[in-house]
Amino acid sequence: MCPLSSKALLADNAHRRQWAVPARPWLMAQTWQHLLFAHWPIPVDALRPLIPAALPIDTFDGQAWLGVVPFEMRNIRFRGSAPAPGLSAFPELNVRTYVNRDGKPGVWFFSLDAANATAVWFARRFYNLPYFRAQMRVHIHETTIDYFSSRLLAPATFRGTYQPTSEVYQSTPGTLEYWLTERYYLYAADRRGRLYRGAIQHRPWPLQRAQAELTEETTARSHGLHLPDTPPLLHYAHTIDVLAWPIEAVNT
Predict the structure, then answer these.
(1) Using H for helix, E for strand and C for coil, what is the string for the chain?
(2) Domain architecture of the chain: domains with CATH
């Protein structure tokens, strides 16, 4: 499947509601594939020490959520260039929660594991994101994805199998699944604690309900976060094309 053109992605923006597409040029285009959203409810108090005090934790009906999200990156390219062989496709897994600053709901990443040293260096250097090198394997059997990730030099492992179980649909504003997925900003902080925000653009998520067998999950625990002993809320997305802008400082 060929990625959408940047012109088509920029034009398809009515679903962003009050969060306008940035006027300045985007920096990177990407395609995300075979993505699993695995979410657990978690107390705000468990997250608060791990997130800058100037960044409010977002909640849905008073409940905070933690996500573990494995997927594959494809077609990574900078504006005005073609995808670079060897650098444009690799697995990635993130551990995340949700924040909201200045009326712009976004994602806060505790970690992002990737099987590409250059991507790890770039994201740490230019996005202040906590990327880590990992050994990763992804095997796809028809609609079933077998996914393995083990962070190098740290005990943080994900091992599981997942697949979609429904037709594709779009989430409805006001629902939990919309709140969890339809976010168009990421937040980060540098070593001095200064906040940054980066915008992204994509079409509404083509969600499917999912089932998963997670046989090992210690990526959340590597941050001192303990998942509840309850089944996760699961969603799958096969493919989505994304534009990303450079990060900007958040006035504090």
Answers:
(1) CCCCCHHHHHHCCHHHCCCCCCCCCCCEEEEEEEEEEEEEEECHHHHHHHCCCCCCECCECCEEEEEEEEEEEEEEEECCCCCCCCCCCEEEEEEEEEEEECCEEEEEEEEEEECCHHHHHHHHHHHCCCEEEEEEEEEEECCEEEEEEEECCCCCEEEEEEEECCCCECCCCCCHHHHHHCCCEEEEECCCCCEEEEEEECCCCCEEEEEEEEEEECCCHHHCCCCCCCCCEEEEEEEEEEEECCCEECCC
(2) 6-15+31-249 (2.40.400.10)
